[in-house]
Fold these 3 entries.
Entry 1:
Amino acid sequence: MPRAGPPGNDDLNGATLEGAGFGPVSIKDGVRQDSWTCFLAPVVGRAGLTVRTGAQVGRLLVDGDRVTGVELAGGERVEAAREVILCAGAVDSPRLLLQSGIGPADELRGLGINVVRDLLGVGRNLHDHVLLGVVYEARQELPPGRNNLSESVLFTHGSAGLPAPDIQIALVHVPFRWAEFTAPSNSYTIAPGIVYPRSRGSVRLLGATPGGPLAIDPNYLGDDADVAGLVEGIALSREIGAADAFAPWRAREVLPGPDVTSEAALREFVAKAASTYYHPAGTCAMGGGTDAVVDHELRVRGLTGLRVADASIMPTMVGANPNATITMIGAKAASLITGVRPAAAADLAAL
């Protein structure tokens, strides 16, 4: 149980997210489980399933308003019997749509790409969780890390008045900082982050050549509410870092540093220290408005034979690490495609 701040939470996947606890992990029999291990490896020899690596898709094949397959970078074509399911993530899913002529018409024409479907939202609405490190030099030697190097986490409310926790603070076993900052190797980090970012960026093509460079503009801290949230997160992290429970370990605050106290200085530190949590989302957003890319069944609007099933379909980011959510997007996609309902929780618990 924590000795400062909000109460403990024994199940961060339970009825409430509020509180401090150990981060949920996907481990079975002492082995970390990923999507390949759980879903593909058990059926890799099944008839009708072919898994190919190193086969980069250059574009989607479209006949009228129907997507019929994909063309690989070397020119090979793979035809789809029913549908193409695009699961390339928040960067490459919009890239493939744009390279295939699906996206903002004016932007595509400017690159010399034939417009298949004018969809304003493709590549827009890019957003990501953002965090930074409040770093402390340790008074004694830190023991070697054994697992994720970030085992415990706190979800708490800031002053934004949101109905759910909007600040996440992780305890990190090592110094977490950008290369321009220095910190002793024997340091630990209390890392605050915002879980409902308001800033929005974009993914755009720079040319018509498949696989070419992209213009990825995350627009981190573009909305001042995100800056204010991280400044507040630093204050909460310092409060935790000053708690008596850390006294045997705390030697000194390294970052931002004890002299960084004014609003202006804290904002300057945020501008330099904020970093991605590697949770990009939103660039093929679901919805019914003019900027929506997919509908409620993950089908790309105005086309048949094409769905998107990855983090890019989230209109707004979930207020926690999104791994479980993205896995469930895949499970929901499978249900929509096959017409078979996902397994009930009781059935999954028996596995």
Entry 2:
Amino acid sequence: MAATCDIGLIGLAVMGQNLVLNMNDHGFKVAVFNRTVSKVDDFINNEAKGTQVVGAHSVEEFVGLLKTPRRVMMMVKAGDTVDQWIDAVAPHLEPGDIIIDGGNSHFPDSGRRTKALAEKGILFVGAGVSGGEEGARNGPSIMPGGRIEAWPHVKGIFQSIAAKVEDGTPCCDWVGEEGSGHYVKMVHNGIEYGDMQLICEAYQVLRDGLGVTPEELHDIFTEWNKGELNSYLIEISAQIFTKKDEDGKPLIDNILDAAGQKGTGKWTCVSALDLGMPVTLIGEAVFARCLSSIKDARVEASKVLHGPDKALATDRAAFIEDVRKALFCSKIVSYAQGYMMFKQAAKEYGWHLNLGGIALMWRGGCIIRSQFLGKIKEAFDKNPDLSNLLLDDFFSKLLNDYQDGWRGGVIRAIEYGVPTPAFSTALSFFDGFRTARLPANLLQAQRDFFGAHTYERIDQPRGKFFHTNWTGRGGRVSSTTYSA
């Protein structure tokens, strides 16, 4: 067959199929292949029936269908499967051809693949894709990174199929070098963990402190979604509260409180630790899921350990407003921490990240899409060298103005014995970040006392280290290495 296809896609699970149909809708001719070849014919004869999608039954046939430079996109399971497909496809490609990994790959793998394929003259793109099945079909957020030379050849396709914001701008732009596309997707997923945990904490504080019903929660969340908290996750949470089970009761009350996870939140936390960045909220969100999973232990503990016995609050409007402010301020901190990771990762790995563009890419199509992201883009448009999101005029004023309500929301949770690890750690981070002098001076003294790890002095230049013989029995020799 003639090489008439604009792009080829390997992996016909739901995400892959929906991306293919999305591409077809936008006028691109797509070749498809799958390890289980029968799935190709099944797709062509059903979901793709009546389209210009072309099925292939071998790797050779698949590659032969593609125009040059050949663009091969993989939507397969992360890990070894990606490497296996690269090994299968690469021998049939030529210098200048492009391999795109659109799966949920770990960013170091994408960095490694970029370098390895470059030695063969093949351009690699690691593209984070967010939005789930619906996003893939109707417009996802796409976060491509890797070899910049590939961008002109995939830009038209990606920006056509991506979600669009109000003015028609696509939620897709070039992110940066090597594994940066998948890094941004990883942090997106980590922030998603944080957003979901924050919403869950707001739900429990309102439920246990005010005694509100799911129907009332629907009304509260619907109202929130009309203002500053407008977002996809607030919107779907409002809808969830209205769903009835077969017995006529709210379905939410019949769902077991044991959360699952696929690991991308953990990846974010590990990267934050590697970079030395205090991304505390995502960490607490991951640990909250872990705590939820030990359901049997919690049930046993509930029979022995007791919280406060407090009557339901009566100041309904003030209570709801405190929780709203706690949720919004904590959300700001979560994004600020995510952007701290971006800046440090760019420095660590030599990437040139499009910080304002990342916020725009998240404005539509993805799970964390929200009105609030426009303010992040404005902050970096106004000051591309902004050191921390919390120092932007808009965000600093909001946190200063809202902090009484934020603290009130956390205090109310404490009074009712409701665990709010994400609310609380966000407030602790805010208080720590705005504090010019933390108690780490005592910590450094302790380290020097027991391990001769040395310390710096406030009356001496940074980088000059000292050791004290604290007991009079120690020696003059200090530790040979210093680690902050």
Entry 3:
Amino acid sequence: MILIIDFGSQFNQLIARRVREHNVYCIIEPPDFNIEDIKKAAPEGIILSGSPASIYDENAPKADPEIFNLGIPILGICYGMHFMTEHLGGRVECTEKREYGFAELQIKNSSGIFKNITDKTVWMSHGDSVVKMPEGFEVTASTNNTEIAAIADLKRKFHAVQFHPEVVHSVDGTKMIDNFISQCGCSRDWTMESFAETSIKEITDAVGDKKVILGLSGGVDSSVAAVLIHKAIGSSLQCIFVDNGLLRKDERYLLEKILYKHLQVNIKFIDSSQRFLSALDGVTDPELKRKIIGNLFIDVFEESANEIEGASFLAQGTLYPDVIESKSAFGGPSAVIKSHHNVGGLPEKMKLDLLEPLQYLFKDEVRELGSALGLPDDIVWRQPFPGPGLSIRILGEITKKRLDILREADFILREEIRNAGFYKSLWQAFVVLLPIKTVGVMGDKRTYENTAVIRAVESKDAMTADWAKLPYELLGKISNRIINEVQGINRVAYDISSKPPATIEWE
């Protein structure tokens, strides 16, 4: 296992992903993760992340210095390099010339993390630099702008780099992390099959003869969690699916067909669509929409859950990114852009123990786990869908008519994306309905109908995303079908905004 100490870097999750790509388990902990807990975790190596702070700031985050006495390899990245340098007797200063973007390494020692590195392109993002190395260290790489771009104490297997090997812009960065893992002597035997086997045993031991309730959304996270728990405790799992009237076309049918009929997972379907639509009547503010839907979901879920006798656990499909951001050095790398749509407060209110079997997995790992558990592609590769559903893809007022229009347009988009072979390569593809009507001509008659926007993005983890360069022929076919087949839309646009500065969802 590799321990990653998170000093608040926006790339901390990328570091973890790079480690896990080599079948090595890792955990991310904040700087105040004390030395006794570190010893109990027994990592074979430690990676110190970057940070938005400077090491000389008054409240700069710092880890327990005893980590340098554990006798295991340590890799410092950017701020992690500065923390290692300062604590071991070196010095870091603010530089006159900052360095952001691509840089070319001049490798001075090809052992250690630079073994077999051929492409020397790396990504820099710093305004501070090491000006004096600690005793026992040597310069292992430089750039034209930064003389001390990498250092190492090869005897103690301490390595530090000014650049970010975890990002894709550092072309051979994955190899460098691979080399560090080799220095740690990790066994590289962590797979989704082994994770499933261990998790099933842990769930069985924890639950015993008690019952578990799970709020099933139909998304990949809750579906994989449901199947994993079902394999552990069978009929002692009771899933609750709340139809809030804001779902996509055929959403409930997919769950009934796959999870209920073929995998024998117990699912209780609650139709509360009219209740939700009534609560949203006249509401246009996106944050108010989210709060109304979230609070009402809790009420509906609790009413149904209270009818289940002997329930002791509430299961959720919480993933590792949510856990990481809740305990980061700065409370997560990003500010709150929109309120989270998970069931906040529900466990405490219902006095149930929380069961989160996916809480140490990333989204791509959940998909791998789903495949290992035998789930079909229709669920494993289902694109992320927001908790408030189509309500935040309809800008303005929510009505049944506008929901029906959006459902049909969205169904056409997803059907054509699948037929063209793009569904798995896209992070998300969906339609947004605008509160704007435009003039059109259909059959020599003037129309005044709704405007729809197609949004399709590529991403690894939704932290950043780029708009998908779909073929013009495909976009033209989708637009033509939507306008011809969906009554109420006469104009289709394509969103070519990336994240940042835009978000993936419109609200």
